[in-house]
Design goal:
mainly alpha, about 70% helix
């Protein structure tokens, strides 16, 4: 009768020289070193054994053409294998590919399917994109209230585009009762993260006194900040605001914008 140690030694001799985890770790090291050939070899070996992390990496290789010719059909194949194991990044990636029609036929229904799976796992990008699908009625029946729900899930996680869209929907009263104060809150959250359109919209709300007391200096400040971010409409609005302001107010507004850009605390 074979001893326990003999059995173990035989098992070790039959076992592969590297585990899936080893291959993934070595692949990540090679990828960091931009040794794409080795990285892909390691990831492929682990992916073929069912490792979802490796599968998504192989998908990225074929999608981005890292050291190889891009092949979207192979990228989708590997993303799908990982997605079916519940890999949230793979699910979101498939959603984007079908949404944009990257190398395959555009399919909004398929995009919604994968976005939903990723969104239910808390992926903020998928939640925001799913909100947009509901708002536009792409792959689903148009539903502003449902769009708002998904935007909110992403927005509370700090997703800047979702915060901006929450501001828009509250400002316009789409999917929710019109509420300028709520719109202002969401615009401000997006504006603080550098969203140029949100910054410009804040300027408009301060100029009109919507959801906040009318304040030309604050309006000018936000227009100035948005203009610096490349918002051409804000540039025109800022210049128009000067017709309603004296030199001292303009100077103070400009200082407020500089303080904001320097990271100093905004006025209340």
């Amino acid at each position: 009768m074979k001893s326990f140690f003999q059995t173990v030694l035989k098992t070790l001799r039959l076992a592969p020289s590297g585990t899936q985890t080893d291959d993934v770790e070595q692949g990540q090291v090679a990828l960091a070193q931009k040794n794409y050939a080795v990285a892909l070899q390691k990831f492929k070996r682990a992916a073929s054994q069912g490792d979802a992390t490796a599968q998504i990496e192989v998908g990225h290789f074929f999608r981005g053409g890292l050291g190889i010719r891009p092949d979207l059909s192979k990228a989708v194949h590997w993303y799908r294998r990982a997605a079916l194991q519940g890999h949230v990044t793979a699910q979101f990636s498939l959603g984007v590919i079908y949404n944009n029609g990257e190398g395959i036929g555009q399919d909004f229904i398929e995009a919604v399917h994968w976005y939903q799976l990723a969104a239910l796992q808390g992926n903020a990008n998928a939640q925001s994109n799913l909100g947009l699908m509901y708002e536009k009625g792409q792959g689903v029946l148009q539903d502003n209230a449902e769009a708002l729900n998904w935007y909110r899930m992403a927005a509370v996680q700090g997703h800047v585009a979702a915060q901006f869209n929450m501001g828009l929907m509250h400002e316009k009263g789409e999917g929710v009762t019109q509420n300028f104060a709520e719109a202002l809150t969401w615009y401000r959250l997006a504006a603080i993260q550098g969203h140029g359109e949100a910054q410009g919209n804040l300027g408009v709300m301060y100029a009109k006194g919507e959801g906040v007391a009318q304040d030309y200096k604050s309006a000018h400040m936000w227009f100035n900040i948005a203009a610096a971010a490349g918002n051409s409409i804000a540039t025109k609005n800022r210049d128009a605001m000067t017709q309603n302001m004296d030199a001292q107010q303009i100077s103070e507004a400009q200082k407020m914008a500089r303080d904001w850009q320097a990271g100093r605390i905004l006025p209340g």
